[in-house]
Amino acid sequence: MSQSVPNIKLLIGGEFVESQTTEWRDIVNPATQEVLARVPLATADEVNAAVAAAKEAFKTWKKTPIGTRARIFLKYQQLIRENMKELAAILTAEQGKTLADAEGDIFRGLEVVEHAANIGTLQMGEYAENVAGGVDTYTVQQPLGVCAGITPFNFPAMIPLWMFPMAIATGNTFVLKPSEQDPMVTMRLVELALEAGIPKGVLNVVHGAASVVDAICDHPDIKAVSFVGSTKVGTHVYQRATLSGKRAQCMMGAKNHAIVLPDANKEQALNQLTGAAFGAAGQRCMALSVAVLVGEAQQWIPELVAKAKGLKVGPGKDNPDLGPVISCAALDRVKSLIARGVEEGAKLELDGRGVKVAGFESGNFVGPTIFSGVKPEMAIYHQEIFGPVLCLMAADTLDEAIAIINANPNGNGTAVFTQSGAAARKFQEEIDVGQVGINVPIPVPVPLFSFTGSRASKLGDLGPYGKQVVAFYTQTKTVTSRWFDDEASSGKVHTTISLR
Questions:
Q1: DSSP strand E in 337-473: where?
Q2: How confident is the model at residue 3, as a pLDDT?
Q3: SS3 of residue 87 by DSSP
Q4: What is the pLDDT of residue 487?
Q5: Cα 129 from chain centroid?
Q6: What percent of the chain has pLDDT over 70?
Q7: 3-state class percentages of the chain: helix first, strand second, coil last, to nearest 5
Q8: Dist CA 120 CA 64 (whole Å)
Q9: Which residue numbers in the chain have pLDDT < 70?
Q10: Apex CA 342: angle with CA 327 and CA 31, to 5°?
Q11: Angle between helical axes of 421-430 and 398-407 (0-180°, round to 10)
Q12: Where is the Aldehyde dehydrogenase domain (predicted)?
């Protein structure tokens, strides 16, 4: 392990501190294998200290006027915009995605920050006058206390920005655990958040792996946990956190399908399918990793392969079409699943395993890969590959294609490509998936709405950002009041429940 690279610090009580752990991991540039920094696996005492700082800060932060909170996020969005290029460069170096895609990662998080600045109208209760004789009822949405977030490697800017801005804007304090694979851009965003005016202890950061995740799930002073990541870890987090009495929202794995009908605009459909399948090297929970070609659309495979062949693979800093996958282990897993697809009888239309990038021979590169003739029982279909691999399936009718998607346990996102309004309406009504695109390949909603993955892709009732996350991060308190004048105060005693 290199000793010449910087150590990533923890943020506890408003101070960036060196961890006292004996366990460290290297942060590696996936295009070059260069070690960029070391990240600590925080100790139990450090996690406890972060939670204690957040708990103490909550005493005053919860009483901070809502306008003051909103203005911090107005400043924060400005700072993110001013530092966009620097943030993207950091993200690309440690995660591998292209500079253009890195800016997109940051921008989609920035939109949530802008939404948080509108908290004054989002966190409003309800009021009803004279619900009974002289009785008024109203609700207020109060913060929960200390909340926590656990974020994945594939969107190290966007997903932390899904979490802590909305939690803090609603009056909570926060403990963030970024991915230990690429925490550098997250930490830079945290620095900018403090510069924007977030007070000491309101935002804290701990790094680590399984033991830190468990500590967050178990800590009695943490009231809610938000998670994005794999199905295996997300299921563990949800069960462990809820068992200890916490609220939890867990966005997990996916196998997203697109239906391509023969009446679709061919050029647009193939372009969008290619981009959605192979962008970010397939490392998106909303990637379109399966296309169901209906009827005559099955004849479009050669043109789809030609478009995929035309994509450029390289280091993210050069802004190719797709960069490397995150790690050597991820590369090995993707290659092994491609080999298994061949063994199980799928037709390998395009093999990306042999891609070479001049000057970056040690990078974790795999090119666009396409299988046709894929069946539901194959590993490449029922496992989330998380690489640039597109599975093609065939169907004779829209009904058959819908049945294929609804039989899959996941429900993160889906899309249909068609020029038929009737077909689109049938699809959106009958498909059992939380987020639906109609000629939109990656239907992640803007922050006015909430991320609404469903079925095996989500645990918890309320999704990230939008109106749902305001409900997640607040407790509704209902107040029923009656005020008497002096003459009415000497009235008859009532022993019934009615207020009339």
A1: 347-350, 369-372, 389-395, 410-411, 414-417, 436-438, 454-455, 458-459
A2: 56
A3: helix
A4: 62
A5: 41
A6: 98
A7: 40, 20, 40
A8: 12
A9: 1-3, 486-491, 498-500
A10: 20
A11: 20
A12: 16-479
Which of 396, 275, 385 shows the shortest CA–CA distance to 339? 385
* Residue ranges matching CATH 3.40.309.10 in the chain: 256-438
Helix axes 44-61, 210-218, angle to 10 degrees: 40
Torsion angle (degrees, nearest 10) of CA 382, 383, 389, 392:
0
Which residue's entry shows tokens 């990656």? 442
Burial letters for 377-414: b for 16+ Cβ neighbours within 10 Å, e otherwise? ebebbeebbbbbbbbbbbbeebeebbebbeebebbbbb
- Residue 204 bridge partners (DSSP): 175
Counting every residue written for the chain, the total comes to 500
pLDDT at 497: 75
What is the spatial distance between Cα 124 and Cα 270, in angstroms, rounded to a whole number?
44
Contact 163, 174 (CB under 8 A): yes
3-state secondary structure of 76: helix
Question: What is residue 1's predicted lDDT score, i.e. its pLDDT?
Answer: 42
Predicted confidence at residue 2, as pLDDT, reads: 44
Express each pLDDT in 118-138 by its tens digit: 999 999 999 999 999 899 999
**What is the token pair recorded at 266?**
């061919």
Q: Which two three-digit tokens encode residue 240?
A: 């462990």
The catalytic residue among 250, 285, 328, 391 is: 285
pLDDT for res 500: 56
Q: How far apart are CA 92 and CA 105, in angstroms?
A: 10
Residue 77 has a pLDDT of: 98
Residue labelled with tokens 């304090």: 173
Q: Answer yes or no: 285 catalytic.
A: yes
The superfamily in CATH containing domain 10-252+466-479 is: Aldehyde Dehydrogenase; Chain A, domain 1 (3.40.605.10)
Segments of the chain assigned to CATH 3.40.605.10: 10-252+466-479
What would be the CATH architecture of the domain defined by 256-438?
A: 3-Layer(aba) Sandwich (3.40)
End-to-end CA distance of the chain: 74
**Could you tell me what percent of the chain has a pLDDT over 90?**
95
* Both structure tokens of 449: 């709405």
**Dihedral of the CA atoms 446, 149, 250, 217 (nearest 10)?**
-170
**Contact 434/257 with Cβ under 8 angstroms?**
no
Q: How far is CA 24 from CA 191, 207, 300, 404, 499, in A?
A: 22, 10, 49, 44, 63
What Rg, from alpha-carbon coordinates, does the chain have? Answer: 25
User: Which phi and psi (to 5°) does residue 468 adopt?
Assistant: -60, -40
Determine contact, residues 230/253, Cβ cutoff 8 Å: yes
- Residues with Cβ within 8 Å of 299's Cβ and at least 6 positions away in sequence, in order, are none
